[in-house]
């Protein structure tokens, strides 16, 4: 294994990113019929999109969305299952936090998947008691 390199990008190899989404279980078969540039738009439209590379292979990613002024939200943090447990996810988060704090953003939130709380707590995130996340269900 090569030394892991973390890069903040506005463009990355689409197929390798889709591989990460699939490996995480976030990519559904119907996504194959969407806009072929869907992933490119996610990367380019994120305030901060970071990838972890082992040589030329993208093995992890994460992104933050923000207005660049008041706060940021981290999402889509994933490492290939074959590379988990090696600190790569922490490297992704630390890279994003360094970038965000360098832009003057100190309020950074996220929604943890069940079971990942300890991971985020180890990076100095704390649970926001008395707050409940919501997801819009669309027009009904």
Could you describe the 3D structure shown?
- It contains 4 helices and 5 strands, in the order E-H-H-E-E-E-H-E-H.
- It is α+β, with helices and mostly antiparallel strands and 140 residues long.
- It has one domain (4-121): 3-Layer(aba) Sandwich (Aminopeptidase).
- The radius of gyration is 15 Å and the shape is globular.
- The termini are far apart.
Q: What order do the helices and strands follow? A: EHHEEEHEH
Q: Indicate the CATH topology.
A: Aminopeptidase
The residue fraction in helices comes out at 25-40%
CATH architecture: 3-Layer(aba) Sandwich
**For the largest beta sheet, what order do the strands appear in spatially?**
1-2-3-4-5
- Structural domain count: 1
Strand content: 15-25%
The unreliable regions are none
- The total strand number stands at 5
Q: What structural class do helix, strand and pairing data support? A: alpha+beta
Q: Tell me about the biggest sheet?
A: 5 strands, mixed
CATH class division: Alpha Beta
Terminal CA distance reads 50 Å
User: What is the radius of gyration computed over CA atoms, rounded to a whole number of angstroms?
Assistant: 15 Å
In CATH, the homologous superfamily goes by the name: Gcn5-related N-acetyltransferase (GNAT)
Q: Overall 3D geometry?
A: globular
By DSSP (H or I, 4+ residues per run), the number of helices equals 4
Q: Overall pLDDT, averaged? A: 93
């Amino acid at each position: 294994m090569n030394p892991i390199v973390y890069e903040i990008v506005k463009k990355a190899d689409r197929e390798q990113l889709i591989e990460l989404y699939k490996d995480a279980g976030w990519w559904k078969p119907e996504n194959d019929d969407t806009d072929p540039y869907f992933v490119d738009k996610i990367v380019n439209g994120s305030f901060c999109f970071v990838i972890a590379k082992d040589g030329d292979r993208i093995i992890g990613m994460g992104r933050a969305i923000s207005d660049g002024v008041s706060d940021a939200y981290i999402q889509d943090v994933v490492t290939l299952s074959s590379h988990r447990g090696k600190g790569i996810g922490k490297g992704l988060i630390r890279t994003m936090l360094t970038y965000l704090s360098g832009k003057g953003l100190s309020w950074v939130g996220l929604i943890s998947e069940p079971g990942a709380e300890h991971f985020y707590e180890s990076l100095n995130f704390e649970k926001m008691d008395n707050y409940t996340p919501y997801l819009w269900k669309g027009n009904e």
